[in-house]
Amino acid sequence: MSDQSRRKFIKHIGSTAALLGIGQLAALGRENEPVTLLQPEQPFAANDKIRLACVGMGIMGFGDVDTAIKVPGVEFVAAADLYTGHLDRVKEVYGPNIFTTRDYRELLQRKDIDAIIVATPDHWHDTISIAAMEAGKAVYCEKPMVQQVEEGHKVIATQQRTKAVFQVGSQRVSSIALAEARKRYQAGEIGQLNVVEARMDRHSALGAWQYSIPTDASPATVDFDAFLKDTAKVPFDAKRFFRWRNYQAYGTGIPGDLFVHLISGLHFITGSLGPTSIYASGSLSQWKDGRDVPDVVVAIFDYPETKEHPAFQMTLRVNFADGSGGGEYTRLIGTDGVMEIGWNDFKIKKHKLPEAPGYGGWDTFRTFSEKQQAEFVKDYNAHYGGNKGKAVETTSNYAAPAGYDDRLDHFKNFFESMRTGKTVVEDATFGLRAAGPALVTNQSYFSKKMLRWDPVKMRVLA
To answer: Which position has the higher pLDDT, 45 or 282?
Structure first.
């Protein structure tokens, strides 16, 4: 493609992207394939100070705070956590003046706190989010938004009643790559969508949630009773506290941790409200460490035809016992091409069928008499002469620039909503439409039944 043709293509598609050679992003395409480098919006200036607190200073808590304070005008002032060591680490990282407490309610009572990050185990998400909105705080709640479907409806009702700024932390929906992917999908570049397939496989102890446990973990350093909340009362167990994802009582297993990312991205790209049927199967294959959730899950989701998209089927798989070493992909397969989505990059491969059907090979043509073969060829050429027999194959690559952080953009959107009243990109309703099918996946797995889901009312059908 000439430079002039490239410029015409970019102008025609209306993209804000700039075209670069493959040498700068070699991982995204074969040699000599161009890559479209997507450009994020210019950072906005801080109009006023936002004082931020975080409940739950584990992996996601520290990661969210580290990202959030990169946004101009955001100041981290307080943290709550049930483990004393996490609070000690907060002061080591962010300074001795950070207010810390084991009781999250102390943060909600403070008038100088504007926003709360909820990065606790899943079974606490709804309670803290609702209490924070009732206290007049903006809320950034980690995914999945809730642990149970009914909890999601309570969060939605609270957001609508209080008018609080509330955003779910599935950051992919703020990615410039997914925004471009949505535009390409809506332009019909892959034809009619018919199948979505995704996998996110791992083969490591940390990837299977066997997180490190501090040597000082004890009833003296951990408020274990508060952690249990309204679940069954059990003796202190450091594994349950620090590896909570392994237990149905506190987490949401593979679907809530990983499927929800894939579902969020799909709904953002296609505009879908969700599937109508869900069936899941799997096993506990390798990580038999006391957990009561599977380490292999495969689920099939049937999406109905709507005005936004045709009917299609989605298959999701996560395998924590993948002896090949793991890997992931998401593929939206249409009649004219496939969109392969990475984390902040994607490619579109097109294989447009020729007008001519072809003949020969594994075909009835070779069973014809010589005379009939000659007549057939003559008739075929009369109908399908020229280039009508050639398939059209193209590949286009798109990527965010090196160092791009979609979670930073997600926080920028959250804080901009606080400052300007702009609609958040992932409100409570979007959050339940993404979390709901993931939660029903768990129900299907444990009940060994296919379940019906109402994507509009967001409820399991009897």
So the answer is: 282
Residue 165 and residue 225 in one domain: no
Domain that holds residue 344: 176-353+391-408+427-461
| Amino acid (1-letter code) at residue 101 | T
- Mean pLDDT of all residues in 348-374: 93
Continuous segment of H or E residues that includes residue 120: none
**For the packed helices 149-162 and 428-447, what is the interaxial angle rounded to 10 degrees?**
170
Q: Which amino acid is at 366?
A: R
Domain identity same for 217 and 269: yes
Give the span between the Cα atoms of 256 and 238, in whole angstroms: 22
Domain assignment present for 372: no
Number of domains in the chain: 2
For 383-406, give one letter per residue: b (16+ CB within 10 A) or e: ebeeeeeeeeeebbbbbbeeebbb
Phi-psi region of 176 (alpha: psi -120 to 50; beta: other; left: phi over 0): alpha
| Helix boundaries (H) for 207-324 | 224-228, 238-242, 253-254, 260-270
My answer on whether 209 and 84 are in the same domain is no
36 within domain boundaries: no
Give residue 194's pLDDT.
98
Contacts 24+ apart (CB under 8 A), 233-238: 238/213
pTM given for the model: 0.89
Domain end residue (candidates: 172, 198, 223)? 172
Q: How many angstroms separate the Cα of 196 from the Cα of each of 48, 68, 156, 267? A: 43, 33, 28, 12
Those residues whose C-beta lies under 8 Å from the C-beta of residue 451, and which sit 6 or more positions away, are 277, 278, 279, 440, 443, 444, 460, 461
Q: Could you report the per-residue pLDDT of 209-249, keeping only the tens digit for each?
A: 999 999 999 999 999 999 999 999 999 999 999 999 999 99
The reply to whether 271 and 395 lie within a common domain is yes
Helices (DSSP H) in 140-216: which residue ranges? 149-162, 176-186
